[in-house]
UniProtKB/TrEMBL annotation:
Source organism of this protein record: Salinicoccus jeotgali
InterPro entries xref list: Asp/Orn_carbamoyltranf_P-bd, Asp/Orn_carbamoylTrfase, Asp/Orn_carbamoylTrfase_sf, Asp_carbamoyltransf, Asp_carbamoyltransf_Asp/Orn-bd
Catalytic activity: carbamoyl phosphate + L-aspartate = N-carbamoyl-L-aspartate + phosphate + H(+)
Top-level taxonomy: Bacteria, Bacillati, Bacillota, Bacilli, Bacillales
EC nos: 2.1.3.2
Gene behind this protein: pyrB
Name of the molecule in the record: Aspartate carbamoyltransferase
Pathway field: Pyrimidine metabolism; UMP biosynthesis via de novo pathway; (S)-dihydroorotate from bicarbonate: step 2/3
Subunit architecture: Heterododecamer (2C3:3R2) of six catalytic PyrB chains organized as two trimers (C3), and six regulatory PyrI chains organized as three dimers (R2).
Length: 293
């Protein structure tokens, strides 16, 4: 794998290779890189999990993370994304992790010779989030075939929904959507269903964050009305299918997408997703830097 930009570039074999390797790493089967490697994590949008998770993954692999803070960088003097990335290449980085508000920002980075791992592009893709989600589902069910997954909420703004829909379909799962009409995405392939029906029939309830920052002037729902209509309430939790799990990429709007008391409930794998994220990012980095350790 030369870059990881979108889930559309991965075939089922690639996804399963990354999952199996992440599982082996989680079981302690990995060696840090023996030779010196340098990665810079260029985050132009806020992040807690993805950035910290990459930093942890790099540290465990013995990779030096070269610090970058967009708010104290020459981006403020007008430097372009390409020139920023090219600079990191020139000073010796072996790979870059990039998150940017512009969808498909990576189209501007063709001149780079080092790999780019997409940490999230606008409303486009979030491939490492999708891979850690897939690992978490596979850990629980041991297969994707025949699983029914509902993605609920702010579909049109969700790069997580887009990436997971593309991957889950390839892997043999059925994906349905639920949520407000205004946030539907016509380009995403899948039936829209009533959330009350979905909670009873789906194996995976994947809640998506209401992305207030991407709504501009559009009026949002009140927290209470959104939660009552589209959120995972205590009542809906009690009607979930046996063995079904709750996922959320986080950060969570407590009391909106999900009742705060359910975030660490027995069916929730939300913090397991975050834990798996480190192992999956180690797996991706190993693949990208073409080393078995
Ligand atoms: N899930 C996710 O991408 O979280 P952060 O925005 O905190 O990185």
């Amino acid at each position: 794998m030369d870059n990881l930009l979108s889930m559309t570039q991965l075939q089922t074999d690639d996804i399963m290779r990354l999952i199996k390797r992440a599982q082996a790493i989680k079981a302690g089967k990995f060696e840090p890189f023996k030779e010196k490697k340098y990665i810079s994590n260029l985050f132009f949008e806020p992040s807690t999990r993805t950035k910290a998770s990459f930093e942890m993954a790099e540290s465990r692999l013995g990779i030096h993370s070269i610090p970058f803070n967009a708010d104290h960088s020459s981006v403020l003097k007008g430097e372009s994304l390409y020139d920023t990335c090219r600079t990191m290449e020139a000073i010796g980085c072996d790979a870059l992790v990039v998150r940017h508000a512009m969808t498909a920002y990576y189209d501007d980075l063709d001149g780079l010779s080092i790999p780019v791992i997409n940490g999230g592009d606008g409303s486009g893709s979030h491939p490492t989030q999708s891979l850690l989600d897939l690992m978490t589902i596979y850990d629980r069910f041991g297969t994707f075939e025949g699983l029914k997954v509902v993605m609920a909420g702010d579909i049109s703004h969700s790069r997580v929904a887009r990436s997971n829909q593309q991957a889950l379909k390839k892997l043999g799962a059925t994906v349905v959507f639920s949520g407000p009409e205004a946030w539907r995405d016509k380009e995403m392939d899948g039936e829209y269903v009533d959330f009350d029906d979905a909670v009873e029939s789906c194996d995976v309830i994947m809640l998506l964050r209401v992305q207030h920052e991407r709504h501009g002037d559009q009026a949002d729902f009140t927290k209470r009305s959104y939660h009552n209509q589209y959120g995972l309430t205590l009542k809906r939790y009690q009607r979930m299918k046996q063995g079904a799990i709750i996922m959320h990429p986080a950060p969570v709007n407590r009391g909106v997408e999900i009742d705060g008391r359910l975030i660490e409930s027995p069916r929730s794998v939300i913090f397991e997703q975050m834990n798996n994220g480190v192992f999956m990012r180690m797996s991706v980095i190993q693949d990208i830097l073409r080393s078995e350790g």
